[in-house]
Write a structure and sequence with these properties.
Blueprint (H helix, E strand, L loop, with lengths): L46 H11 L15 E4 H7 L5 E2 L1 H7 L12 E4 L9 E3 L2 E2 L1 H9 L3 E3 L1
Parallel strand pairs: 1-3, 2-4, 3-5, 4-6
């Protein structure tokens, strides 16, 4: 055996030159196949889709299913019995004055009176929604519901 008879176990392989990009190999420096590998027009930016959707989402947050209508503030007849005197008129304005409920950005909230607790004073209910159990308790105590 002489030195000119020696051969390498793994001879050097030349990379094949594809497309443009010199000796970049298979994808010619583009990295992927398909639309991204082609010359010319690229994919349109996805941010446009989001920008178009933003005005519709404004003010609602992520949950679109939330109701636009304001929910009623809930007051039990037991708390009315503690605060009001016999023969008083109960309305959203008087409830705010007594400190039972708070205004919503300086507006009077909608109020619903529920039948939790005991009532032994005759009260007149105005401009409030009243549950059936509360209505029975108010009328039993000698009061009136004017809706």
């Amino acid at each position: 055996m002489q030195t000119h008879n020696l051969k390498r176990a793994h001879p050097n392989k030349k990379t094949r030159q594809v497309g443009r990009g010199g000796t970049r190999g298979k994808t010619a420096g583009r990295g992927t196949k398909g639309q991204n590998a082609r010359a010319g027009h690229k994919k349109r930016p996805e941010i446009r889709d989001f920008i178009k959707r933003v005005p519709k989402l404004r003010g609602r947050g992520k949950n679109i299913n939330t109701s636009i209508e304001l929910k009623s503030m809930v007051v039990n007849i037991g708390s009315l019995n503690e605060v009001f005197k016999d023969g008083d008129i109960v309305s959203p304005r008087t409830l705010v004055k007594k400190g039972i409920i708070k205004t919503i950005s300086r507006d009077l909230p909608r109020v619903k009176i529920l039948g939790g607790g005991k009532l032994d004073k005759s009260l007149t209910i105005k401009e409030c929604q009243v549950s059936t159990s509360a209505k029975l308790a108010i009328e039993k105590a000698g009061g009136k519901c004017m809706v």
